[in-house]
Amino acid sequence: MPRVAIGIPVFNEEKYVAKTLSSVLSQFEDCTDLEVLIQDNGSEDHSVQAIEKVLDSYSGLSSAIRFSKQSNNRGANYNHWKLYDETDSDYFLWVGGHDQISKRYVSSGLKTLEEFHDVSMFCGKHQAIRSDGQVLDKPVEYHFIQENPADRYLRSIASLTNCYIFHSMFRRSSLEGFNREKICPSGDHILISRWLWAGHLFQSRECSYIRRYFDSDDRDKKNQSGSYANRRNNVQFFDAYLTDLDNLASGLPSHVREILIRQASEILVKRFGVPHV
């Protein structure tokens, strides 16, 4: 199996997915230890045709690219994890079906993770694609370089806002024991914090994760639908976060684990309000 796998979940991305795929498939130019998995989640537009058209032009890479199609939409959570489960690579990266990555993203990430064993997440600098298609530099910098895993974890709860670093290349080993059954809003926060328990974040200045942003009403709709944790739906979010922290800290003395969970609880309440009962 290749050392690196990229998973691209797709749902109704016919306008953007060709550019996404072109940016991902260009990674083969300087990294052959790679496979790419694309899964369409029952798109209702012409995403499938757009994907197939791009793949036709990369026929020489057919053994390193897999494309699967769901007959109906089974939800974003299913789509993401299905891609992950289809490979056993050492390193994995999710790329949004409307996002892009810059040249040498994968080769840079692989080199960094192989060289620095205290790094668990490699991500390029943040760039934004606006709704009009313009690409802008929009610095989003995090300093999760503390030596203590608990310190990195607690700081991430307190400071994560823009979660573009969810699209980091990460070590598969860092997800061992993760409970996927606890589906909750803003689940990307919990995964990022878990990765930070395993090691540092490395934000490259040499390559970029280029994230597409839509009009503000799109985020408002997602907020109203419960996609993001807020003061009205925070119970599931709190439960998933604290359960995972309890799991990660299971090797610590019980009184130390209790202190960590109490500190995490206090930060969650400060940011997202008291549990909504």
CATH topology of the domain at 1-98: Spore Coat Polysaccharide Biosynthesis Protein SpsA, Chain A
Number of helices: 9
The proportion of residues in beta strands is 15-25%
Main β-sheet description? 9 strands, mixed
How large, in whole angstroms, is the Cα Rg? Answer: 19 Å
Please state the second-level CATH architecture of the domain at 1-98.
Alpha-Beta Complex
**Shape, principal axes of CA atoms:** globular
Average predicted local confidence, pLDDT: 93
Specify the structural class.
Answer: alpha/beta
Q: Would you count the extended β strands for me?
A: 9
The CATH homology group name of the domain at 1-98: Spore Coat Polysaccharide Biosynthesis Protein SpsA, Chain A
Question: Unreliable segments (pLDDT under 50, ≥5 consecutive)?
Answer: none
Question: How far apart, in Å, are the first and last alpha carbons?
Answer: 47 Å
Q: What is the name of the CATH class of the domain at 1-98?
A: Alpha Beta
Residues in helix, %: 25-40%
Provide the succession of SSEs. Answer: EHEHEHEEHEEHEHEHHH
What does this structure look like?
The chain has 277 residues and is an alpha/beta fold. It has a domain at 1-98: Alpha-Beta Complex (Spore Coat Polysaccharide Biosynthesis Protein SpsA, Chain A). The protein contains nine helices and nine strands. The longest helix is centred in the C-terminal third of the chain and has 19 residues, at 254-272. The mean pLDDT is 93.
